[in-house]
Amino acid sequence: MARRLQKATGRAYPPVSSLVRQILGWEKGEHFPRDWTAAYATAFEMTEEELFGLSSYLGLAGGGDGGAGSAWREVDPTKRRDALRLGIAATVAPAAMAAVLGEAASEAMEFTRMAGASAVGAATFDHLQAAVAAIDRSYTTEPPAEVFAVARAYRARVQELIRSPHTLKQGRELYVWAAWLSELLAWLAHDLGHPLTAEAYAIDSYEHADQAGHDELCAWAADALASIATYTDRPERAVAAAHRGIARAPASHPIAVRLRAKAARAHACLGQRAECEDLLRGAEELHDRLPARPPTRFGTDTGPLAEYAVTAYPASAFIWLADYERARRHAERAVAVHTSTPSTDPSPGHVAIARIDLGIALCHLGAPDAAAAAGATALASPRVFEALRSRAGDLDAALTARYAETGHARDFHERYLELRG
């Protein structure tokens, strides 16, 4: 536009750079091109009336005490830019318009090229799937500190890829893998006894899953948040997290069962029996309607997670409600179910917590020897994690408070101290 104006006036001054600044000022409404209207009209092969007098198009009042310059300044800057860039371009000479369209075709081609530009290699997602599956499998078999280091390195690499050029489709998939890795890191940090880090990763997992529109993954992240809140004595937050996950979980997925049972457990911590029992019934009903072959998680059967939820979580819930007889029955059922099919349980450490709950129930029912024996068996688990240490502390407190002088209570107390150490 500046070059056209310069050519239309036949003058070498002002230079193009100066004219560009003037044009930008006109677009912003800082001043009106009073001395340049004829040059504009010549440059675009239009009359001054056509170019500056179309009040209805440009949104100008026209005339008035303030004159054309005042009216021009009253117009919204966006409208001025649209008028100068689009309205004028629509009425330029055919030869000029052809040049504009030629440049536009080149721009469109560049837009298309950039849409496919990516730093994500062809096999990146295959590699991530294999790596996350391996991390998920090693979660229950390898030392959590070692698995955490590996998962954290992959999470950092995915973040680098998110920041690098990628397609929109690749971006969504990168967010999904980021969420899966953060979900695993949340559980690993929880097992290592660092709730702050665990919650941070769980929140990150939910956020990335939500951005990617992945409902199931949102549910898994909420599941982690609910557990972390429960074991840090924040039952209200556990309830909120579980219900948030319930809203996203597919009804035919085991995670929906698990979240209802976790919400029930959190309500029990708050002493809310009615809400707890209602959610437990809902979990049982969903469990009964699960497909014969439930979805897998990186090739691992998720069915046992739902089975554990409807057996072990009620045991914990009824302990917090001080209904020890019902807690004992559920805990015994949980131990029986999970010891009969240990190879199918993706989290074999779960049965240890069920044994602890059984011990707490037995302690309150007047059987300290059986309670201590159940607790000792739990502490012999090959995988010790923070949730187990926490529940073992509850059993130790119960035995110490009621049967401090018995050998069973003293023996378990010594085992518990070794575990904490």
From TrEMBL:
The domain of life is: Bacteria
Q: Which InterPro entries match?
A: TPR-like_helical_dom_sf (IPR011990)
Q: What is this protein called?
A: XRE family transcriptional regulator
Q: Which organism is it from?
A: Actinoallomurus vinaceus
